[in-house]
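W.,

You were right to be curious about this one. When I first looked at the sequence I had no strong expectations either way, so I just let the prediction run and decided to look at it fresh. Below is the sequence, 162 residues in total, followed by the output.
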Amino acid sequence: MAGNAQILGIGELAKQFQKLRDDIKIKTSRRMVASAGGVLRREARAIAQGHGLKKSGALIRNIAIKRERNTPAGTEQYNLGVRHGRDLGNGKKVVKYLAVNKQSGRVVTRRENDPFYWKFLEFDTKHRNATPFIQAALNNKSKEAIAAMEDRLNKDLAKASK
């Protein structure tokens, strides 16, 4: 979402991963990547709060990870970003209201607590300097994310060996 990142040089994890049965590999790989995503999500939320981006709380509540369904075989991918737009995915009914665009006079539908503005904060705009929180989370916690993946793998290896 905010940037592409590939983590290379984790050959030891790959060697341990090959010890798992084929039917467990998919579940374990998803758990590993999700645990790393959880570390990054917590850090992104902390950075966003540190920048003072908690006006309504909608931005911080909607920082989430989502599994990418269309990936090549043998690859698991989760996206870290901010839920916004039509479906916030939090299970609650979205309250809609009508608003009038002051410049064009057009009537548009808005959603209550929709953090549509997250891209303006993450990426630089001409009116405001960027306050990146997603890319900063990746830069700050990449080693901890790899450690979380390794911990998850070790737990699943111990569980599989029983």
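Here's what jumped out at me. The chain has one domain: 11-161. And, maybe more interesting for your project: The beta strands are 63-67, 78-82, 96-100, 107-111.

Coffee later to discuss?

I.
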